[in-house]
C-alpha cells in the first residue's frame, strides 16, 4: 500500500522517547516497543527483536505475547501483519516438532487487544481432499475444502 506523500511526510512512525525504533529493517511504532517496559503500552505490545534460525542475518520483530513474526506495522490503518502458523496434514517433510500429529495448531487471541481482519485475512486449504475449519470460542465460524476429482 502506498500512502499519499503529504501523509507520509506528516505522520512518521514514532517510538517512545529514548526507545529503539527499529528491528532490522522494520520500524516499530508506539504502542509497540522493545526492551524497556516504558517503551510499549503493555505486555501485548512488547516486541522481541530476534534472529530467525533458518534465514538471514537481519533480526526480525516478533510479537512476544504470541510468538508471531511481525511483517509490517500499518499505523494508518491501526493494523499489524503477522506470519501465521501453517497447518500441514499428511506432510512428511513438514511435521511440527512440537506437535507430532500437527493438529489443532492455534493462536489464542482471547483476552488480547487483537482480532483478525474480516476483510484482509485469507483462510484456505490446498492439496487433495482436505477440509479445514476455523473456530472461535469453540464454535466453527468458517471452513474450506479442496476436492480432487476421481479419474
UniProtKB/TrEMBL annotation:
Top-rank taxon: Eukaryota
Kinase in keyword set: yes
Coiled-coil intervals, chain numbering: none
Keywords: Kinase, Receptor, Signal, Transferase
Annotated Wall-associated receptor kinase galacturonan-binding domain residues: 19-74
Pfam families, alphabetized: GUB_WAK_bind
GO cellular component: membrane
Compartment list: Membrane
Keyword Nucleotidyltransferase: no
Membrane topology: Single-pass membrane protein
Sample GO molecular function, one term: polysaccharide binding
Protein name in UniProt: Wall-associated receptor kinase galacturonan-binding protein
Native source species: Medicago truncatula
Amino acid at each position: 500500500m502506498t500512502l499519499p506523500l503529504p501523509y507520509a511526510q506528516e505522520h512518521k512512525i514514532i517510538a517512545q522517547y529514548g526507545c529503539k525504533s527499529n528491528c532490522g529493517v522494520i520500524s516499530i511504532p508506539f504502542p509497540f516497543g522493545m526492551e524497556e517496559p516504558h517503551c510499549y503500552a503493555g505486555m501485548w505490545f512488547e516486541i522481541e527483536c530476534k534472529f530467525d534460525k533458518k534465514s538471514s542475518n537481519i533480526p526480525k520483530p516478533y510479537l512476544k505475547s504470541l510468538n508471531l513474526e511481525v511483517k509490517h506495522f500499518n499505523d494508518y490503518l491501526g493494523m499489524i501483519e503477522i506470519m501465521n502458523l501453517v497447518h500441514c496434514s499428511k506432510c512428511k517433510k513438514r511435521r511440527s516438532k512440537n506437535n507430532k500429529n500437527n493438529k489443532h495448531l492455534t493462536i489464542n487471541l482471547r483476552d488480547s487487544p487483537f482480532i483478525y481482519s474480516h476483510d484482509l485475512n485469507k483462510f484456505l486449504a490446498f492439496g487433495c481432499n482436505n477440509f479445514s475449519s476455523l473456530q472461535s470460542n469453540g464454535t466453527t465460524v468458517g471452513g474450506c475444502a479442496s476436492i480432487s476429482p476421481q479419474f
